[in-house]
Amino acid sequence: MVPNSISKGCWAVERLRWGMLGAAGIGDRDVIPALLASETAELIGIASRDLEKAKRKSEQYGLPKAYGSYEDMLADPEIEAVYIPLPNHLHKPWTIAAARAGKHVLCEKPIALNAAEAQEMADVCREAGVHLAEAFMYRHHPRIARAKEILRSGEIGQLRAIHGVFTYNGAGNTGDIRHNAEWGGGGVFDVGCYPLSAARYFTGEEPEAVTVQAKFSPEHGGVDMMASGLVEFPGGVSLTFDCGMWAAFRNTLEIVGSEGRILLDPSFLPGADNDSITVVTTDGERREGPYGVNAYILQADQFARTVRGLEPAAFPAEDAVAGMRLLEACLNSARHKTRAVL
């Protein structure tokens, strides 16, 4: 085996050399530990507009480099890929800058502020020959593919409906960037994107129309703090969802068939010891799992295999564009109190 590499079958694969563009909290909690644990990744350093902060973070994790600006990281030829956890309004400019610097990009969700931005990002990355992925880590967990396999098998009959919820109470944190509308704040962007993406995945379809009601709070920058909606898919299947940042914590997804249902609870934040699937049919109830895996590591691994040419992207950039189109429609429906046709 070549140095600094991993094996995949008969292949020797060079580890993907990562940089983190920004020092956001999600990096500390989830992404940095995942990159350090991944056998496909080598985390080189962290960039911050404050060099001392970047140095502290890099030293904390034993990383060889720290950068005092995002530009410095993008100019480093050792960096092959960047993870972007910046506020939503900065996703587009820094993804484009990274692509033009020849870096592959894993960008936090939602990938942009609207579908036009997402399309521009996808176009620039394609032209630059770099891989762009939206960081919905839950989709890389094996139970998601397994749930779709169960659905396709017909065990729960024909798909009739999907119901998803993702809420938490962050109303007291008035300095939160999620309370800034111009920066892409609000509950639909922050957590509503999860059940919306899941419904697109499990139906295998793009929606036809949405109707959403939301609570826009003047106390929180005018963003949608709560939202409930109906998403219409072809064939009469629908997603009903509620999401937001001003309610008790809930995190579940239910896939309802004519003969049974599949329950993911928790759905979008599975832990290594709490990531089972519950299947309920007329024959009874069973649980599959726990799987005991880290979805953030699996996300990094899939990204690296795509970059190295071992497998196609699990979710290409055009999927992110379609997702943004749906998010836009949801917010337009809520603001104008109308049914939005896609």
TrEMBL record:
Drop me one GO molecular function for this one: nucleotide binding
Against Gene3D superfamilies, the record matches this protein to: Dihydrodipicolinate Reductase, domain 2, NAD(P)-binding Rossmann-like Domain
Q: Which InterPro entries match?
A: Gfo/Idh/MocA-like_OxRdtase_N (IPR000683), Gfo/Idh/MocA_domain (IPR050984), GFO_IDH_MocA-like_dom (IPR055170), NAD(P)-bd_dom_sf (IPR036291)
What region holds the Gfo/Idh/MocA-like oxidoreductase N-terminal domain? 16-133
Asked if the record carries the keyword Glycosyltransferase, the reply is no
Q: Return the Pfam families for the record.
A: GFO_IDH_MocA (PF01408), GFO_IDH_MocA_C3 (PF22725)
| Keywords tagged on the record | Oxidoreductase
Q: Where is the GFO/IDH/MocA-like oxidoreductase domain?
A: 145-262
Family, according to the entry, reads as follows:
Belongs to the Gfo/Idh/MocA family.
Give the PANTHER family listed for this entry. OXIDOREDUCTASES, TRANS-1,2-DIHYDROBENZENE-1,2-DIOL DEHYDROGENASE
The protein here is known as Gfo/Idh/MocA family oxidoreductase
Q: What organism is the protein native to?
A: Cohnella candidum
